[in-house]
Amino acid sequence: MSLWRKWSGVLASDSIAARLCASRLGQRLTLLLALLMLGVVVAAPLDLEAQMLFTAACMAAALVLRRHAHRLAILAMITLSVIASLRYMYWRLTSSLGFENLLDMLFGYGLVLAELYALLVLLLGYLQTAWPLQRKPYPLPRDTALWPTVDVYIPTYNEPLEIIKLTAFAAQAIDWPKDKLNVYVLDDGRREEFRDFCAEAGIGYIIRPDNFHAKAGNLNHALKLTHGDYIAIFDADHVPTRSFLQVGMGWFLRDPKLAMLQTPHFFFSPDPFEKNLDTFRSVPNEGELFYGLVQDGNDLWNATFFCGSCAIIKRGPLEEVGGIAVETVTEDAHTALKLNRLGYNTAYLALPQAAGLATESLSGHIGQRIRWARGMAQIFRTDNPLLGKGLKLGQRLCYLNAMLHFFYGLPRLVFLTAPLAYLFFGAQIFQAEALLILAYALPHILIASVTNSTIQGRFRHSFWNEVYESVLAWYIMRPVLLAMVNPKLGKFNVTAKGGVIDRSYFDWKMARPYIVVLALNVLGVLAGLWKLGFDPEVSVATVLINLTWTFYNIVISAASVAVAAEARQIRAEPRVYAELPATLSLANGKTIVCRTNDFSQRGIGIALPEGAHVERGEQLLVSLFRDHEECVFPAVVMFSRAGVLGLNFLELNIEQQRELTRMTFSRADTWAATWGQGAVDTPLGALAEVSSIGWRGLRLLSRATFAELRARLRSPSFHLRSTPRNP
């Protein structure tokens, strides 16, 4: 019998000890004792040799635990990381800040403030991700008469009709009693073609005389005109699966205090990082960490955020908080905060039950993140989760971390430029010996990296967080700071979806901040090399530490530059790669059993069996299957080569379009097959990958620079300026 089981048995048999540990007083005493022990370990003075041994022991333990990544091992790794990080920060604040001049003080305190921010986010991140709840669907009653009525809202403003059609047909296909399901398109664009489509398709159509409060106002207006017990909300491009309500609604019937249930935002098209860097489905995208792990961890603390789409909300509690929040531009998260403050529960199911279009361009992606950052700063300023009534401590901390996350703009820029203070100006931002800095900083950085890699491995690869933040840092910094000064500044911007990029190009405007940071770091390397070669009084170890840091910043900055090289995207309707059973019925009466390679709203890719052949231009019927159901669609062969067919559907009527959506985009198994199935993170492999992308960024920047120079030299305006004028 293990020591843990033996102790658990003794504790269980001792009724007094068991009652004490279960009581609130016992829990507080245990927490106090743990904090006291942590304080002793953190503040224990060690000389350089002892600290190096401590570092080696912690790293060895972390690597051993990583090989057994079950929950208790992860908790042990988090404990090691917290100890190493707090020891570093204690040493940093007590032993490395004895600045002797104003320059050292400005750069030194700037860096330590950025480090304190990063440490706080690290610790709160551990709180959120240490123990994901992993909630499973709860079964509904067999008697459908007990199932509630549901209104499905699809808010839209400027999205194309083809995008709305797909979402609306999928909403109609949700497996729910038809007399208890009502689908509404909420058209803030007030377009006649949308009204006509909804009338033909049997979908409710709601408009309002103005666009006051943007999406939140649109939803609140519909709330007054409909009467369902629950509301399911989908953005215009988020296509629900048939199982959406049956998977999520059971928890509401089990828990009468449950007000909102959120499911992941899953995307079947690449975002600008994935498209421009060619990492789609090979590297987890920017949002997968939040929907794959953070929201699941929030659920443990009853602090799941409403994310504006792919969610179910109970009408009564929503009306009780005054509808969707309108005070900030992130109305979704603010609404969840209000529901939690009133004592209602929120929940998360980490099962993709809808899929949508990711942002297409880097500028569009940045615009979306600016709105998120501004909105979270507005909530922090006007409805701070640390203040006010109604929230438990865990909820307050989860909401706090969500808001603090978007304050990374300034700290990230500090980390990208900090070593330049020494390389350019000789500023001593650490008042300590180089080896002592390494002895305390390395365990903090390395153990945190290994721990986060173990926790996040399927949803965020190492070093990619730095790339994502570096791309966005400059752009979110200003709106966040302005929102802290005046929360009413800024407006709601709609993220464009369903567009095309007809040619590849380098986005100089968006890349400008990264190019500046990259250039400064390259100059920093030159300055460091000059110090090593020509400054006899310099500390070689100090220069090498700063050069290493600067080389890393060059890799991250160059990778950020690579993201600005917009790849061509000629499809307005991205294809979804999926193998589904199919048959082809040819004009000569032959039938070919085959499988799909991919599908879209307008066409489908087919993998033919060996020996089969179909001519280009031939019209045929393609059958798709789900369980024992078959649907047939007319199509024409657009290309035929190497056993692969590209089919375009012929004109489909409303009912055929609805059936096509049901047989393709509405299938939950299509999204579940790729959810969280990417390669598990290996830190060294991720570093090599990011470095390779950084090298690509340098090459792209060089080519773009020469192309821009050639274009300017050949422009007529350049020749006019160069032509000498007659006196």
Task: List the main descriptive attributes of the protein structure presented here.
Thrombin, subunit H, six-stranded antiparallel β-barrel, globular, 727 residues, disordered N terminus, alpha+beta, 3 domains, Spore Coat Polysaccharide Biosynthesis Protein SpsA, Chain A, single chain
Rounded to an integer in angstroms, the radius of gyration calculated over CA atoms is: 29 Å
Mean pLDDT: 91
Our measurement of the CA-to-CA distance between the termini, rounded to an integer number of angstroms, reads 102 Å
Helix run count: 27
Number of domains: 3
**E-strand count:** 19
Percentage of β-strand residues: 5-15%
Largest sheet: 7 strands, mixed
Derived structural class: alpha+beta
| Strands in their spatial order, largest beta sheet | 3-2-1-4-8-6-9
The shape is globular
Which regions contain 5 or more consecutive residues with pLDDT less than 50? 1-13
| Helical fraction | 40-55%
What would your notes on this structure say?
With 727 residues, the protein is an alpha+beta fold. It folds into three domains: 44-130 and 408-489 and 505-566, no CATH class; 144-361, Spore Coat Polysaccharide Biosynthesis Protein SpsA, Chain A, CATH 3.90.550.10; 579-663, Thrombin, subunit H. It has 27 helices and 19 strands. The strands form four sheets. The chain has a seven-stranded mixed sheet, with helices on both faces. A six-stranded antiparallel barrel has the order 14-15-16-19-18-17. Strands 5-10-7 form a three-stranded mixed sheet. A hairpin with a 3-residue loop joins strand 15 (591-599) and strand 16. Helix 4 runs parallel beside helix 20 (434-456), helix 6 packs across helix 18 (409-417) and helix 16 crosses helix 17 (393-405). The protein is globular and about 85 Å long. 43% of the residues are buried. Mean pLDDT is 91; it is low at 1-13. Belongs to the glycosyltransferase 2 family. It is found in: Cell inner membrane. Residues 152-321 form the Glycosyltransferase 2-like domain. Its cofactor is Mg(2+).
